[in-house]
Write a structure and sequence with these properties.
The protein is of the alpha+beta class. The chain folds into three domains: 9-163, Up-down Bundle (Hemocyanin, N-terminal domain), CATH 1.20.1370; 194-420, Di-copper center containing domain from catechol oxidase (di-copper center containing domain from catechol oxidase), CATH 1.10.1280; 426-675, Hemocyanin, C-terminal domain (Immunoglobulin-like, Sandwich). 34% of the residues lie in helices and 15% in strands. Strands 1-8-7-16-15-10-11 form a seven-stranded mixed sheet. The protein has a three-stranded antiparallel sheet with strand order 6-9-12, with no helix packed on it. Strands 2-3 form a two-stranded antiparallel sheet. β13 (552-553), α20 (559-572) and β14 form a beta-alpha-beta unit. α4 crosses α5 (100-114). The termini are far apart. Bound molecules: CU2-O2 cluster. Residues 217, 221, 247, 367, 371, 394, 397, 407 line the site of CU2-O2 cluster.
Length: 679
């Protein structure tokens, strides 16, 4: 069995793309490719506005020259058959990735784009099918193909909240935008968080409804799609573990926001108990009406055509059984040992479930099915012909408090597995000769709400005789002052050594002001940063800025900025380098700190400096950027740049926290996070 796994890994590694050029095979510059993508996505619900693309869409024939594809035109032929048979979902209709047929259609186009040898083929097919396919399917296929095709290297995808604003904006604001357009009156509208103060959950709506967080979440699922097959070109390294870790971090962040707002941690979902929180989304589809609401305290209902509640309980117990046994059974009847570092990756694939699941027949798709079950509780038998719920779209799911209940539930299953592994010993976590002597925060851990504006230009329809007017929404977003860490490390070894520095922020006091010991609190720590550092002999001072965190990404460029920079580069023939914006997956940098409280919320800053030579996967780990957001989003097309389990060394049970206090290479410093009402 071991030999077989190794062979598979070697084969997958050989297929990884190089992702290393500025121009594609046909010589198209990054600027031109970026401009094509900007134009393809511009006013997505309307016909193409740019004459070159418009002409392509009218004259191009996807099957005329099959030598432009790496599969001899098989995918294009398949898609054309569906088109000619009039089987496509109509335009001006909602699209949900969880709808199997709609997903299949979007992936047929994705498949065509992934098989293009040149950018010309890519853009010709995109223009052709944009005019003929459902807009949501088209946008999904284009986004994922730009992310995963080598031809998309260097292209920045515009923020989805400006391409499909309905999925990110309250219905009230969208109505105001229409009025502004029809009355030709420019408008700038304040978007408030959903609900009223009568609902305690509204206190933390700023987190689940943060448009940057929504982008991180939806893009994570595009970077690591559950439908991904390695035949698309390469293997997504540690996808199952990343599913666990990225969502574990969303869960602990949400709980830290709750603590900041005098709320208890979120409780887990339970199939046989009521769903406590209802949700009224106040959000509408562009086409398809209002997102359905769910009242408080409903019992889980079977959902016609999806699953019985009983199925979910059975699947859960099969997974828990596997954890208790320490192995899963694959679809050939062979056992895969999960009581090791790799087990979490297998479990992630099983629980989501993704195509990587070794036995989806037996272990089902607990997470994906749960999203649909929760999305449909307002109309479980389809009596009212309601469109899918917010839980059935990754861009809207975190708005619903049941999202965090669901993910707490799955997080606890992952914890059951992590608790089944032996705790780390002193020898495991020690870094001989290395001591972290002091950790200091330079600056203040101060948070505040900022005001952010984004365009609603794409929310309203295009009309020939009605001119565009400036329409935007502004929202309040959690932000923080920039700070940096000063870490003094003594290296008593002879010569330079490579270190991995991991920084976590762990709440230390619960909502009743009871101290949380590390034996419990280790599971609630927020990952702040992870990086490699070469240590010279003697004393070392590490200065690391909050903005350098490998967990976060900077604010996206607006659509207008993206158009402007691109058009300038194309017009002047200059190089377009937007690489710092290339990854949209990653927590927005301004969300790095939880809100905290006015009087200061207590945390332990946990800094572990361990042996980097044991962790590295490349020769120059200190200078490799790995896309800058690798901690929870991996590195595109590359191995995850850290061999240790995600969450190391805090992810296993800690029955005796003295093990951590006894090693010199781990430092715990008490800090407070202050929320500034006036900033
Ligand atoms: Cu991200 Cu449930 O996995 O939404």
């Amino acid at each position: 069995m071991k030999v077989l796994i190794l062979c598979t890994l070697v084969a997958a590694a050989a297929a990884w793309p190089s992702f290393s050029y500025q121009n594609d095979a046909s010589g198209d510059s990054t600027a031109k490719r970026q401009q094509d993508v900007n134009h393809l996505l511009d006013r997505i619900y309307d016909h193409l506005h740019y004459s070159d693309l418009k002409q392509i869409s009218e004259t191009f024939s996807p099957e005329a020259d099959t030598s432009m594809y790496t599969d001899g035109g098989t995918a294009a032929h398949h898609l054309m058959e569906e088109l000619n048979d009039h089987r496509f979902l109509e335009q001006h209709h909602w699209f949900s990735l969880f709808n199997p047929r709609q997903r299949e259609e979007a992936l047929m186009l994705f498949d065509v784009l992934m098989h293009c040898k040149s950018w010309e083929c890519f853009v010709d097919n995109a223009a052709f099918f944009r005019e003929r396919m459902n807009e949501g399917e088209f946008a999904y296929a284009l986004y994922t193909a730009v992310i995963h095709s080598e031809l998309g290297q260097g292209i920045v995808l515009p923020p989805l909240y400006e391409i499909t604003p309905h999925m990110f904006t309250n219905s009230e604001i969208i109505h105001k935008a229409y009025t502004a357009k029809m009355t030709q009156t420019p408008g700038r509208f304040e978007m408030k968080f959903t609900g009223t103060k009568k609902n305690k959950e509204q206190r933390v709506a700023y987190f689940g409804e943060d448009i940057g967080l929504n982008i991180h979440h939806v893009t994570w699922h595009m970077d690591f799609p559950f439908w991904w097959k390695d035949s698309y070109g390469y293997h997504l390294d540690r996808k199952g573990e990343l599913f666990f870790w990225a969502h574990h971090q969303l869960t602990v962040r949400f709980d830290a926001e709750r603590l900041s707002n005098w709320l208890d941690p979120v409780d887990e979902l339970h199939w046989e108990r009521i769903i406590h929180e209802g949700f009224a989304p106040h959000t509408s589809y562009k086409y398809g009406g209002e997102f359905p609401a769910r009242p408080d305290n409903v019992h889980f209902e079977d959902v016609d055509g999806v699953a019985h509640v009983r199925d979910m309980i059975i699947i859960e117990s099969r997974i828990r059984d596997a954890i208790a046994h320490g192995y899963v059974t694959d679809n050939h009847g062979d056992n895969i040992n999960i009581r090791n570092d790799h087990g979490i990756d297998v479990l992630g694939d099983i629980i989501e479930s993704s195509v990587y699941s070794p036995n989806a027949q037996y272990y089902g798709a607990l997470h994906n099915t749960a999203h649909i079950m929760l999305g449909r509780q307002g109309d479980p038998h389809g009596k009212f012909n309601m469109p899918p719920g917010v839980m059935e779209h990754f861009e809207t799911a975190t708005r619903d408090p049941s999202f965090f209940r669901l993910h707490k539930y799955m997080d606890n299953i992952f914890k059951e597995h992590k608790d089944s592994l032996p705790p780390y010993t002193k020898a495991d976590i020690e870094f001989t000769g290395v001591a972290v002597e002091e950790v200091e925060i330079v600056g203040q851990l101060n948070t505040f709400f900022d005001e952010f504006e984004f365009s609603l230009g794409n929310a309203v329809d295009e009309l020939e005789k009605v001119h565009d007017v400036a329409i935007s929404a502004y929202v309040h977003r959690l932000n923080h002052e920039e700070f940096s860490y000063k870490i003094l490390v003594q290296n008593n070894n002879e010569g330079d050594i490579l270190a991995t520095v991991r920084i976590y922020l762990c709440p230390t006091v619960d909502n009743n002001h009871i101290h949380i010991p590390l034996s419990e609190g280790h599971w609630t720590c927020i990952e702040m940063d992870k990086f490699y550092k070469q240590l010279k002999t003697g004393s070392n001072k590490i200065d690391r800025k909050s903005t350098e965190s490998s967990v976060t990404v900077p604010d996206s460029l607006s659509l207008a900025e993206l158009h402007e920079k691109t058009d300038q580069a194309v017009a002047s023939g200059s190089k377009l380098d937007l690489h710092e914006y290339e990854r949209s997956c990653g927590l927005p940098a301004r969300l790095l700190l939880p809100k905290g409280t006015v009087n200061g919320m207590d945390f332990d800053l946990f800094v572990a400096v361990t042996n980097g030579d044991e962790d590295k996967v490349t020769d120059h780990p200190e200078t490799d950027e790995h896309g800058g957001t690798h901690a929870q989003c991996g590195a595109h097309g590359e191995k995850y740049p850290d061999k240790k389990p995600m969450g190391y060394p805090l992810e296993r049970s800690i029955p005796d926290e003295r093990v951590f206090h006894d090693v010199a290479n781990i430092n715990v410093t008490h800090v407070k996070v202050f929320f500034k009402e006036e900033h």
